[in-house]
Structures are given as structure tokens and as C-alpha cells.
Amino acid sequence: MDLSVTSTELTTDAAISTSASAATGASVFIPTPGTPYQEDIARYWDREARPVNLRLGDVDGLYHHHYGIGDIDRTALGDADDSTYEKKLIAELHRLESAQAELLLDHLGPIERDNTLVDAGCGRGGSMVMAHQRFGCEVEGVTLSAKQASFANRRAHELGIEDHVHARVCDMLGTPFETGQIAASWNNESSMYVDLHDLFAEHARILAAGGRYVTITGCWNPRYGQPSKWVSQINAHFECNIHSRREYLRAMADNRLVPQAVIDLTAATLPYWGLRATSPLVTGIEEAFINSYKDGSFQYLLIAADRV
Ligand SMILES: C[S@@+](CC[C@H](N)C(=O)[O-])C[C@H]1O[C@@H](n2cnc3c(N)ncnc32)[C@H](O)[C@@H]1O
């Protein structure tokens, strides 16, 4: 698979990242086709530097852009008046975010060292590193953001795993991966930026027959009727377009992806949001998540599907 491109084909940001990766020997980027919407999203993530993402990642070098699941360890948090409380709170939020990624990896099925995995919408690469550390295999990530790809490749280089973990700037709806060669692929909170039929057609193309696709995503609940005002607020905040649970299942069925597990993580993510809402790292969107999870208009789902 030849992924090389000339620098004249690259956007300015991607070209900057290419020289950064040349310095680390980390990766080669391919150009982003770039609808105007995708250019907005690339800009959003290029500029994104919220403490809630960076300070949590600094805990152990795994940088996530997703939410957490599981019960809060109150013993680990200790007393809120203690001078070390903020540091402990950040570590606890990060632990819950890593637990979310572990659950996603649990659903990829048996993965061999010579397999290749694809992280569609890989962000700063935390899940990719975890996948390689667990399975010892190759992990390829795609993101619209040159800054994120560069960050992920720098981390892989620092960890000495740059031969196994690569990020590139690329639209996940049209990846350079060969047809039928990928053992498993996933979207971790990145499917709300694209048309689901186009997305699942691309996963179905790259996955081997019998391969596994997993998504963890927020979706609006058809039982509520239509997207609630909270869901609309979340869309505006992240410039995304949250789909319904029904749309996920229908688009999978239309693209040879047969759900093997559908897990409602809504109750499991609420403790994370409650803790985050009390932290100095609030971003202002916490209330919309908590209210929409509680009124039933929004759900946090894991769907694992077999490529048939
Ligand atoms: C909320 S972040 C999730 C990052 C990562 N999956 C994680 O769990 O930390 C959303 C990601 O989706 C990516 N994204 C959105 N639309 C995309 C597209 N069309 N192609 C590739 N990546 C896309 C963004 O660049 C960003 O990295």
C-alpha cells in the first residue's frame, strides 16, 4: 500500500505536520478532501486545547477526547478540602476515561499481533496506544486534524512504538486502507461528524469478513421522539450532528454490520459527568449531558457488530 504523497498535495497544516513527523520518522500524511464542514471540524480540533483533555492526559501520557464510565473511587479522591484533591480528581476522571477505552477494546474480539486495527477519528491517539499495548498489533488512526495526528505520532515516537501506531490526516469516509484487510475498527465518539451510511460502508469495505466493528457514541433516543433541546445544545457546542439509536442500527444493517452487542452505558457514564461538573475543568456542557441522560432523550451506547 503506497501512501506517499508530495508536499504540494498537502494542506499547510498537514505539511507542517509532515515535517514534524519527518523529524520523528513517524508517519506520512495524505491530504484531506475537505468539505467546508470538514474544514470547520479540522479547525475545531486543531485549536482544541481544553485543560479537561490535556491535564487528564498528562496523568499517564494517554490523551483521550472521550468521556468516562464506571463508579467513582471516593477513597482515591479523599477529602475535597485537601490541597491534593484537584490532582486526585483529575486522576480519577482520567481513570474513568481509560476504563471507557478498555471496554471498547474488550469488544474487538480476538486480535493477533500481525493484525491491523483502524481507529476512525483517533484524536490524540490514547485509544490507539492502549490497543497496541494490549494486542501488540499495528494500529492505524485517521483524524481531520493535522495537530492531533502530529501529537499522536509524537507520543508513539516517545513510547518507541512508532513502527506500530500511526496517525494520519484523512477523511474516515475514504481511507487508503486496502479492502478486506483490517481485523477490527472503531469509532470512539467520532461518528457524530459524518453520515452513518457513508461511514459504515467504509468500515464494511476495509474490514475482513468476520471482522469486528465497535462504536461508543452518544445518540438520541427514538423513544423520546426527536432530539431534545439538550441534544441540540450538545450539537451546537461540538459542531456535530448526533444521530439516533435507530439510525445506527439501520445504517449498520444496510452495510453488512450485524450487531453482536448493544450496551447502554448511560447509567455508567453519569457518575463521571457528576464528578466533572464539580471540577475546576468544567467546559459548560456538563448540564446538557446530565439533563439529557436523566430525561431519557440521550443515551451513551456501545455497539459491537460483526462484518458479515
Ligand atoms: C471527540 S474526538 C474523539 C477522539 C478519539 N476517538 C478519542 O476517543 O479520544 C472526535 C474525532 O473525530 C475526528 N473526525 C471527525 N470527523 C472526521 C472525519 N470525517 N474523518 C476523520 N476524522 C474525523 C476529529 O478529527 C476528532 O479527532
Automatic annotation (TrEMBL):
One Gene Ontology term of the biological-process aspect is: terpene metabolic process
What's its EC?
A: 2.1.1.255
InterPro entries, alphabetized: Erg6_SMT_methyltransf, GPPMT_Stmyces, SAM-dependent_MTases_sf
Needed co-factor(s): Mg(2+)
Specify the superkingdom.
Bacteria
> Mind listing the UniProt keywords for this protein, alphabetically?
Magnesium, Methyltransferase, S-adenosyl-L-methionine, Transferase
One of the Pfam families matching this protein, by short name = CMAS
UniProt enzyme class: transferase
- Its name, as the record gives it, is Geranyl diphosphate 2-C-methyltransferase
Source organism per UniProt = Streptomyces malaysiensis subsp. samsunensis
List the lineage, top down.
Answer: Bacteria, Bacillati, Actinomycetota, Actinomycetes, Kitasatosporales
